[in-house]
């Protein structure tokens, strides 16, 4: 009987792998078409200064719209794009769109645009060269660009990535570690890493009032970051209680659905320039004196 079950389990395992493989293959081909047709879009999720709730920047997030109006989740297609290497051309597309929009944000001269990078890109191309040539093409100042990487950069052969990150910083860009706390990085690395910002993962943010260990971990991360002269941006804030907790701990930036969801550029632009919409609103109807 045990043997029978073992055999079944094995069969189920291979079947589900086959289905997954087929699905991944299908998505890969579909993605190739979408890259060539330039049908990827970028949404922007603002983040705010913890001490003023004012928007200080936004994160560019890839969106893949479908014919029926739905979107395929980045959690799904980014993973496949990283496996197939399609993340390299895809990232260039995303970067071009993000930079083109950033160039339109003229009045907020301190506004920062954050772009996610994949470790794959560091293995395949010279990121600093790509960034500086795109920044020149779209006329965006390098100091208004921030690049987010996950902790996996510290796990793999790190030296080349470190050098590249240091170069990006030398030309004026900021570096953030994304989803901080979820990886397996050695804390000893943090001191050597050329980074400016740690983004606390929403897994911690969202469990501070359900899991006491999360509070302890967040406090430790924040005090360590401050001791090493790095800023904190907290991801995934959904409640005012969560926001207050991190404000009290002196975090610099807050990001999450409580403040803003990812949005098309037009919406971000309206948020940053409320004067445009106010002007038209205040004339209809005319105010009484
Ligand atoms: P990420 O970089 O950690 O981005 C944050 C994700 O959390 C986004 O999901 C965002 O919509 C979501 N989020 C933000 N605030 C909240 C909140 O309060 N509650 C909840 N439940 N979720 C929140 P999204 O857009 O689905 O992206 C998922 C991941 O895909 C990103 O995680 C990033 O790792 C990757 N990704 C997205 N766009 C790109 C890209 O252009 N390049 C690369 N390399 N990766 C990307
Ligand atoms: Mg990110
Ligand atoms: Mg993140
Ligand atoms: Mg995250």
UniProtKB/TrEMBL annotation:
<feature type="domain" description="EAL">
    <location>
        <begin position="24"/>
        <end position="276"/>
    </location>
</feature>
<protein>
    <submittedName>
        <fullName>Diguanylate cyclase (GGDEF)-like protein</fullName>
    </submittedName>
</protein>
């Amino acid at each position: 009987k045990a043997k029978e079950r073992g055999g079944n389990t094995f069969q189920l395992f291979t079947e589900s792998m086959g289905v997954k493989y087929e699905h991944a293959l299908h998505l890969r081909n579909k993605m190739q078409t979408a890259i060539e047709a330039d049908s990827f879009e970028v949404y922007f999720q603002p983040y705010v200064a913890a001490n003023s709730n004012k928007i200080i920047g936004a994160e560019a997030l890839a969106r893949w719209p479908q014919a029926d109006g739905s979107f395929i989740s980045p959690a799904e297609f980014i993973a496949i794009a990283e496996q197939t290497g399609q993340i390299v051309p895809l990232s260039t597309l995303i970067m071009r769109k993000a930079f083109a929009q950033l160039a339109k944000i003229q009045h907020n001269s301190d506004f920062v645009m954050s772009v996610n990078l994949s470790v794959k890109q560091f293995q395949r191309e010279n990121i600093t060269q790509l960034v500086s040539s795109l920044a020149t093409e779209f006329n965006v100042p390098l100091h208004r660009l921030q690049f987010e990487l996950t902790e996996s950069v510290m796990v793999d052969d790190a030296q080349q990535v470190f050098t590249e990150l240091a170069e990006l910083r030398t030309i004026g860009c900021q570096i953030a570690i994304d989803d901080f706390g979820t990886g397996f990085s050695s804390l000893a690395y943090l001191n050597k890493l050329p980074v400016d910002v740690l983004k606390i993962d929403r897994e911690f943010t969202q469990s501070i009032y359900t899991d006491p260990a999360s509070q302890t971990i967040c406090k430790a991360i924040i005090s360590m970051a401050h001791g090493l002269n790095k800023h904190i941006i907290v991801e995934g804030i959904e409640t005012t209680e969560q926001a207050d907790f991190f404000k009290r701990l002196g975090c610099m930036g807050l990001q999450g659905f409580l403040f803003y969801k990812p949005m098309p550029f037009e919406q971000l632009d309206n948020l940053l320039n409320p004067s445009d919409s106010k002007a038209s609103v205040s004339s209809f109807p005319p105010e009484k004196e």
